[in-house]
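User: Structure please.
Assistant: Input sequence and predicted structure:
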Amino acid sequence: MKLKYLFPLFIATIALMTSCDDKEAVTLLKEIQVSSSYVAIPEGGGSTTITVTAQDSWTAKKVITEKDSVKWLTISSATGSAGETELTFSAPSTIDGRAAEVLLNCGGNTQRINIIQGLLGVTEATVADVIGGPDGKTFRVTGVCTAISNTVYGNWYLTDETGSLYIYGTLDANNEEKNFLSLGLEMGDEVTVEGPKLTYGSVIELVKVRVININKSLVKVDSVENEVLPLEGGEFTAYLTCKGQGVSVEIPEDAESWLSISSIQQAGTNAVVKFKAAANTGGDRNTTIIFRTTDGSKEYTTETTLSQKGAIVKATVAEFLAAAVGNTQYRLTGVITSIAHATYGNLYLRDFSGEAYVYGIQDFQSKGLKVGDIITIVGRRAAYNGNPQVGGAVLESVIPVTAVTIAEVLTKPDSSKDYYMVTGAITSIANQDYGNLYLKDGGSEIYVYGCYPGYGATGDFRKGLLAAKGIIVGDKLTVIGTKTTYTNSTTGISTIQLANGIYFSHESAE
């Protein structure tokens, strides 16, 4: 999730609710815009109107949850056309605060409209209660600060015995934003906060929370040494302040095979804990180490993370897609089939085993890559909304592929290094299994010695493309390969061919 694009759902008062959040500008869509993405309806009932500006036709749809069918909310129109349209939201009176969300869809893009009527009551809750509760409801929850991701807005994680919750935005003692550090909140502190729930994609959050109480932890990590260990392993050291009755350490079960405690030393309130990591024969790995202490009646915790570099795992696309989300680095090679974002390098990469979405390649614009090029990248297995993707990709190498006509490729010198993309109609098929066939474009024809499912195919993986795709004589085929010349030792006849063809696309003659 790209947090810089997330903006708050609810604000503390009706007056603020009609104002514009300073981050909202980055969320504007070109296809559809609204005069306000927050709509407040009076508690006694009534209507509120906004202006919708769209480049194309659009639809409006209420988000229905298990706990709210949203029948209380009326929308003046469920559809609209290009241009400016007034959209009115109405509701009868209510004695309890309530909230809803409306989605405006236009040209494949979605604009969210957040509706609130009255003041939502505060409910004491656990993290599990918040996760299972409705969006828009205000919760008060107590837990431990386990990680801090932004010290300006105050984005952090709150954890209790029932789960973990993301806090997006924390107000200071004067209910002001962007002053998180004034609270003095640290990892390990027990915190009680109050704020409305929001679900953004698959992430459940409390937004713009008020801090009700901070109970400072009796143990905290002051600093660490070697938080990223090399492949060969080594020593990791954590320096702590512990005001409780001694310090204990918990290594997660998934790290017990390679991480151990070598010593614990404590003098007064200062403690030093040293760990030994074994050599890493796999991919990148990391773990979270938990430190505990007690005052005799209550337990306090804090934690720190440790990472270790690993070998880069060479994988097919299918193997990569089957891997777990994590920091292990994978090396993938395949053909660029399409580019979704020319600035950041969001693209699709395909080999013989499958296709993967690459969420950006570092410094993509300077690489000069194009559709059809064969590239090797290194990245980690990531996911967005449950969909697998390559994250943090770095380009290792590229084989440029030049699009040419059949007539042009016939004039090229033989080379095993120069790759060409050619398109033509299939005039005959010499070998169905391996895809040996003839392609013709205009008055020129070339023999394709093998049309394989994708880059990297070997052995039996080279077989069966034509049958699997239903490709027959007459179909238009685009294939990538190198130009070679084969000379029959018996007849002495030479044949120009496109060798080791890589399937790119085809169009049925029908």
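The two ends are 43 Å apart (CA to CA).
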